[in-house]
Structure formats: structure tokens, C-alpha cells
Write a structure and sequence with these properties.
With 205 residues, the protein is α/β, with parallel strands linked by helices. It contains eleven helices and five strands, in the order αβαααααβαβααβαβα. The protein has helices at 3-6, 24-36, 40-55, 61-72, 78-86, 93-101, 118-123, 137-140, 147-157, 171-179, 192-203, and strands spanning 10-13, 108-112, 133-136, 164-168, 183-186. The protein has a five-stranded parallel sheet with strand order 3-2-1-4-5, with helices on both faces. Helix 7 (118-123) links the parallel strand 2 and strand 3 (133-136). Helix 2 (24-36) packs across helix 5 (78-86) and helix 3 runs antiparallel to helix 4 (61-72). The longest helix has 16 residues, at 40-55. The radius of gyration is 18 Å and the shape is elongated.
Amino acid sequence: MSDQTTGTRHVAFDWGGVFTVGTFDGRSTQNVADRSGVSVEHVRDSYFRHVGNLEVGTWTLPHFWEVLQSETGVSMPYGEFEPLYLGSIHDNEPMYATLAALSPVVKVGLLSNNYPVVSEHLRKDPRFMRFDALVFSNELGHKKPSPESFAALEEAMGRPAGHVVFVDDVQENIDAAEKAGFHGLLYHHERHAAFEAALKDWLGG
């Protein structure tokens, strides 16, 4: 009997670019530049050289901000930076509607390359109560597309990878998911209706 007929197909999602419109990093660096008057190119040069330390949890967000300020000349207290940073999240509302509409028999996971404070913020979001498993790179110490990330997702969901479709907006991550045994589904917010149809087909109607 297939997964479809026994109701054992499940779904896991990325966060940035899937539950958000556009990239969180692009928007946050633009917001810092706009608030501080420092060029966005200068902000992004420092940001992207060091953001990997946030993604694997080796730096705290306050330390990251301290380094970025020292390299760019941005002058902004951390107490102003944190809400600006969190405020850079632009929700993709259709995806949250899709999440809420999933059948209760479907297990739902999240695998996200994420950052301290941001991941904590997301855990407090009532909409995230629908997730059965949350795997954040900054808590795991590994980020996509590493095999360790997908192994952690499979373990957290408690279901074989072959029973789970993984949704991401980056082809490299889809390729890694499929190598790990998941079914991959590439996402773009401008093609949400097509995505919903493909997800419905995977889940069996």
C-alpha cells in the first residue's frame, strides 16, 4: 500500500524565501543602511563575511552586531538594532495559510539556516505551533546543504526521509535534500498556486 493511501506522507519547509517574501538578509542589511546612513554595500560586505558565524551558532547576535559596527562605522545601540533586525521579516502570508490548512495527519517540519534571537522569535510565533519539528542551524551547529542538517531533520520528524517532501527556494538545498532521500520541491512565492497543487498531489489529494 502506498504512502498516499495510508496517509503517511509528510512535509518539511525551509523558512527564509518560503515563509518570507524575498531574503531576510537583503532586507535587514538595507534597513540598517537606511537607518544609519552607511552605504548598503559597506554594510553587506561586513554582514555576509560574518553571518556564517550566526548560522552555526558560534557567535551571539550582540557580538555579531559589535563586529559589524566596528567594521562599518554604523553607530546604533544593540537595543535599537535587534527590533530593526526582527522587523526585517516580511511574512509570506499565502504560505502561512497553506501551513494552517494542512491535514492534522500530516507531520510538518522546518529546517532553516537561521540565527540566534531570530530563531527564538520564530519559536514564540503562535503559527509555529503547527510544526512538529523545528531544526535551526544555529542550534544544530550545521547548516544546509550539509548532510548533517538533513539527517537531523529526518530524526526530528521521526519519519523516513522518503515519506517527506522538502520545500526550499534554493536549488542547491533541494539537491542535497534529494541526495538525503527526501522528495524535493523548489518554491518561489510568485508561483504559490502551482506549489500548492504540487504539494497536494504529493500528499495524495
